[in-house]
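Do me a favour: review this protein, sequence plus structure tokens, and tell me how the chain folds. Record follows.
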Amino acid sequence: MSADPFAFSRANAFQRAMRRLAASGPGSWFFARALHHVDRPLFRLTRGRATVGSLVSGLPVVMLTTTGARTGKPRTVPLLGLPTADGLAVIGSNWGRPGPPAWDRNLRAQPAASVAIGRHRRPVRAVEAEGQRRERIWRAGLAIYPGFSQYAARAAGRHFRIYVLEQA
């Protein structure tokens, strides 16, 4: 059994079922359109202690704030924050949709961002993981959320960028 407290194998039956639902086509369609609308307010209301995603799935959800590539305005999005040996990582799976998520384009244009983990917000610099580092993080991500493999299959070969959020 993995020592990672967020590992799929350590989640309770309800959390594993919710992770499987989120990975399914209908589940990811629904959650991609609805979850961020409730996660952001709940995160503020609980002062960073919870999101709907973290409560029902047991996954580590963080709030990433990027600078809009076109607008220059701050954009905050709830994401699965993977605690790995390489640091906190995020995967641009976009729920398995054909294109990358907007936050990916934002980080490519401006890698300076901030991340809120619980009550703590810190400035970060997003560094794209490549090669063996990327593979290590991808494997760690699959151990926590096996649904990434279903997203990859649905995205028809699209390369998911993986970023390590290094402290700025």
